[in-house]
């Protein structure tokens, strides 16, 4: 069984996974974020760590626009054409050609809310959504149109799917759920539903990189064949099995990106991985709760991945 089949077996209820797949990812330095150097670095990392799919890091930020100061200003937001994405598309095309026969190839896709935060800031965006969600919604529509253009081109190039990252529903972000339901959820779903219709395999990532969550329930009907989320909530932990049951799909995660993976000894990494594996649902990918720090040793990640591959309950 090759790595494509191993991961796809997780979403085939009629088959038993041959082993527990695993994958971790980090941002590469500026010399490895575009062109052939990015393709080569991703492949080097994939082969060195032994992970079970290729996850492409997305490195093309939306430009920061100082002119977005009030909710009325979102109408000024430009809609970026396809050539805006030339560099990441080149990396996608290169990695599809280099790796698709060997493993599933997925790309990080930030949500419209996250791209909007790049355009302004999280604080300003959050404040403006609270003030006038209907006006900020205009900007979210413009961003979604731009990103949809990019998504469709990635699919045309043969990408297997996306690591679909979403924020906006964190604890203390919005007291009024209308803010999330007006400016975040519909635009998340528009992109994710298109991906779900067209792609073989995608991962829903509930991202706590900015703020923690009180609950991740509001995302349970978001698309994606696998769910990746932190098990640390503001009012205590949730188990990997509970997440898998809540979302009715395999879970990916279980390890703290800032814990043993980042700075631990071999024994500490093995122990942390084994703890996650012991608590995992039957259909599971060992991973971190988000992107690990860029200076994390590749050897550390290989240790965790080898532990998953050799695990037998």
UniProtKB/TrEMBL annotation:
Residues 55-311 form the Uroporphyrinogen decarboxylase (URO-D) domain. Gene3D superfamilies: 3.20.20.210. GO terms for molecular function: uroporphyrinogen decarboxylase activity. Coiled coil: none annotated. One of its GO terms (biological process) is porphyrin-containing compound biosynthetic process. SUPFAM superfamilies: UROD/MetE-like. This is Uroporphyrinogen decarboxylase (URO-D) domain-containing protein. The lineage of its organism: Bacteria, Bacillati, Chloroflexota, Anaerolineae, Anaerolineales.
